[in-house]
Design the sequence.
């Protein structure tokens, strides 16, 4: 699957990836979603300092994050995607989170529509923790298998994507995963935000 993510066809409407329309064709909708996410995070004082986005695609979120963070870094398996994302002025590494040196820590770590692709989600969350400053925040977004849309659409739910999506979560199971990794819940009104426990 990592090799599939590296292919330009993944973002351009190949058999695997964005099959119905290209990623670029969804830019305006994606940016609107990311603007709303960042606005909500800022309202909860979860922005500022340094940002790491794992799986940044073409860098739309990194670009929208300019007003909210002093320094922005991303990772992306697609060489083409990483090149496009670098045009936002962010530092972008080709590959996964393991491309980030161990000593680098961030105030906010984001993984949007990533964890459903991960074969070892607990290990992945622990990797996110290892790159989060004590007192920092980790935000994970994933399709909600327990949500109204999935229930209404049944087996036609678009997030049933084989072979890319290997794990499915609802609010309860994702919360349990993050707690098992050692994170603590930071109460918020409409989202569950988790933070790294300070070791100090």
Sequence:
């Amino acid at each position: 699957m990592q090799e599939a993510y590296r292919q330009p066809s993944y973002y351009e409407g190949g058999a695997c990836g964005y099959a119905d329309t290209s990623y670029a064709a969804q830019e305006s909708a994606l940016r609107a979603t990311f603007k709303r996410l960042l606005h909500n995070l800022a309202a909860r004082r979860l922005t500022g300092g340094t940002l790491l986005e794992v799986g940044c695609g073409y860098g739309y979120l990194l670009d929208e994050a300019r007003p909210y963070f002093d320094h922005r870094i991303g990772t992306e398996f697609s060489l083409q995607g990483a090149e496009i994302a670098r045009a936002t002025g962010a530092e972008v590494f080709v590959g996964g989170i393991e491309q980030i040196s161990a000593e680098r820590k961030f105030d906010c770590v984001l993984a949007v529509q990533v964890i459903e692709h991960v074969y070892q989600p607990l290990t992945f969350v622990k990797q996110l923790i290892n790159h989060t400053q004590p007192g920092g925040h980790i935000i994970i977004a994933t399709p909600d298998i327990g949500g109204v849309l999935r229930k209404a659409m049944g087996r036609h739910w678009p997030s049933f994507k084989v072979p890319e999506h290997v794990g499915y979560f609802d609010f309860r199971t994702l919360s349990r995963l993050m707690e098992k990794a050692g994170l603590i819940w930071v109460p918020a009104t409409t989202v569950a935000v988790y933070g790294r426990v300070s070791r100090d």
